[in-house]
């Protein structure tokens, strides 16, 4: 009989274990939510804060569900600790074999209010040192976020939709500071929600800031408590004798220490319309050559005409020499 040899071939089927692809952290008024999906086997979820919090303060509610493929989705919820802007919240999703840890963080900063026309820096500091990362800034003013700036530290390539309006400091970026500088923000164009996102290897860190740009205050003279001169047309301008303008151009409103004394001086000066006994100025040449004597009680205040923007004030105004 012939010897028969049987060959047994064992075929091994290798099943790829789904990796943790991303972790999303979101903040509401009362809770922080961390979620990740399409994972197998069931992962673990861990919470931390900066500044650090006691472990009992980080008690959370975590749910785990599976889809028709047997892949897991995890969602963990944590209560806000104190003021929402006081902490940065970190959520780590850890694979069952501990070979993969994916970490995401979220911080909602205090709102920033800034007068328009003045440079503004919106802070964005990475929570820890990042070797290879990309930074993205988005702006949202009407629930329609747009990417305004993107930077990749590996290629040093950058994209800036607001070129000439905003920029990053390249040197500070190397230290993990991705703060955005707005040169001259305007109320209509730059008020809204700014979000900066650091993305690195198995990590994502998000910082969100609400910015409110207010209308610029005009710097103008005020007379008798009236409002500022608008548009250069002397709207509502009171040119009565109680308006004091200094010869050196200084704004009397910026010298509160002298305002009371000046008001007292004005009250002591007779009004030409009410008191006809006020002595008129000398009209002889000999008297004109002599040094003018201050009015009694005026302490050196002299009458003068005030001309502004081509409009001459013909009513009596007292000027400080």
TrEMBL record:
Residue span of region Disordered: 247-321
Principal localisation: membrane
Gene3D superfamilies membership: Immunoglobulins
Composition bias, Acidic residues: 285-294
A GO MF term: signaling receptor binding
Gene Ontology CC annotations of this record: external side of plasma membrane
Domain of life of the source: Eukaryota
One biological process term in Gene Ontology: regulation of cytokine production
Keyword terms of this UniProt record: Immunoglobulin domain, Membrane, Signal
Subcellular location: Membrane
Electron transport is among the record's keywords: no
Xref: InterPro entries: BTN3A2-like_Ig-C, Ig-like_dom, Ig-like_dom_sf, Ig-like_fold, Ig_sub, IgSF_BTN/MOG
Signal peptide: 1-22
Domain called Ig-like: residue spans: 18-93, 99-214
Name of the protein: Ig-like domain-containing protein
Organism: Oreochromis niloticus (Nile tilapia)
Native organism taxonomy: Eukaryota, Metazoa, Chordata, Craniata, Vertebrata
